[in-house]
Design goal:
single chain; 271 residues; 2 domains; 5-stranded mixed beta sheet; globular
């Protein structure tokens, strides 16, 4: 009987040692290493900075050859070069940007992103680098009827889902239809599906009015005043690295040159 008990004890001890060894092996695999790896190391090891964007002229948009260009796109390429990595642009649904970031589908959101409370609490954000506002876009032939916020109450607005424009519509207490991108909001107004849109002033200046694809639209009321930043995963060391890059590129004039190329120099914030 004693021998049986000793044998059972030895078997249990052996099983415990095996289980502890297995757990130790699991915790020492590649997944654990990636958890302890900094974001900068992660990006450099991959050799690519994956940038989440939407089609947003003049910040991120495609030229006739399908290449992504714009103030943000060109800055991102320059930042990637400073890190010694390639830059890949991936179109995302704006309402899913935080999920895309946390899931490592992308490494940052760099797309004229307003520094809202939701953004700054969910991402590691850079210092602001550009000023912006949310403004109302309307058909030119009725714009003079809507010159106050009270006059907007009965309109149906198109807004980008999860955007500062949507927040502005909610604060106004107006009816709105969420769409995937700000450019879609302009299409809704141009087609008559929605009465008006709330979009970024920088986009409106580039895409609305005489000489643009939306010559029959105009922008009127400014609803908010805000600032743009770039968002990384919470705790990422890349945000501070980009802050340093912003300061250097502003000091040597690179940021101003890129801004002038896309007509956004007046919106720049000194770094």
């Amino acid at each position: 009987m004693k021998k049986a008990k000793k044998l059972l004890a030895l078997l249990l001890t052996g099983l415990m040692v095996f289980a502890m060894t297995a757990c130790g092996s699991a915790s020492g695999n590649g997944d654990s290493g990636s958890d302890s790896e900094s974001d900068m190391e992660y990006v450099k090891d991959n050799g690519t900075l994956v940038v989440g964007i939407t089609n947003f002229e003049p910040m991120d948009y495609q030229d006739e050859n399908g290449e992504w260009i714009g103030f943000d796109a060109d800055l991102a390429k320059a930042f990637g070069e400073s890190l010694g990595v390639d830059v890949e642009f991936v179109e995302i649904e704006w309402g899913s940007k935080i999920m895309e970031l946390d899931g490592k589908t992308i490494d940052c959101v760099w797309n004229g992103m307003t520094l809202t409370d939701e953004v700054t609490s969910s991402m590691e954000c850079t210092q602001p680098y550009c000023r912006n506002a949310q403004i109302v876009v309307l058909p030119t032939d009725v714009a003079d009827q809507y010159t106050t916020t009270d006059s907007l109450k009965n309109l149906n607005f198109a807004v980008e889902d999860g955007s500062a424009g949507q927040e502005a519509a909610e604060e106004l207490g107006v009816n709105y239809t969420p769409v995937q991108q700000q450019s879609d909001a302009l299409m809704e107004v141009a087609s008559g599906t929605c009465d008006a849109a709330i979009i970024d002033s920088l986009m409106a200046a580039a895409m609305v009015g005489e000489g643009t694809g939306y010559a029959n639209l105009t922008y009127t009321l400014e609803l908010t005043s805000e600032e743009y930043g770039v968002g990384f995963r919470k705790g990422s060391d890349l945000a501070e690295e980009l802050n340093k890059f912003f300061e250097q590129s502003y000091a040597d004039g690179t940021m101003q040159q890129i801004a002038e190329k896309y007509g956004v120099q007046a919106a720049l914030i000194e770094q």
